[in-house]
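Comment on this:
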Amino acid sequence: MKRFTLCCFLAVISLLVLSACTKQEKTADADKAAVKSLMKKYCTADLNGVNLSTENFLKSGISSFMVAGDSEPPGWDTVTLIKEYAVTSVELHGTTATATVSYDVLGEVPGAEEVAIDKKKVQYSFRLVKKEGIWKLVTPSDLQPHVSVPTALQHIQNLYDTQKENQPKAPYVMQRLKQLMEQ
């Protein structure tokens, strides 16, 4: 009888341990999925120009999933042109996470002055923290915009339309961006 009681006790303990492990795995999987989803939202918003100006940034609501920092909202003179991005990995470390994003870079547009072609793959590591059950992006908070060619073209066109006298090279830059879209 003692052996039967001991076996039952060990079986119950084993089930409790197995249940706890399964629950932790489900929580980790859910956290990884949440981090990946947040990174996709951020990168898609960036691709579509959210970081091109303070106005775009403030209107977008993107700051709701970023940890507030000491710096001002973005406004950049140089943008990185990208073909696409991919969230390639997510690592959890308790209430912090690291997400790696790979970009297919086409080049840059410095100051609406030129289109500098420089095709390459680059990776950035983003750090996130879980606050009050919600994942938020911490760093990098100063990454220049990574935008699509159509987004860059629209941005340069808007600059030219509103500040023509300050954008003498904009027509040339827009022509180069249209050529890049056709490639």
About this structure: Confidence is low (pLDDT under 50) at residues 15-21. DSSP finds four helices and five strands in the chain.
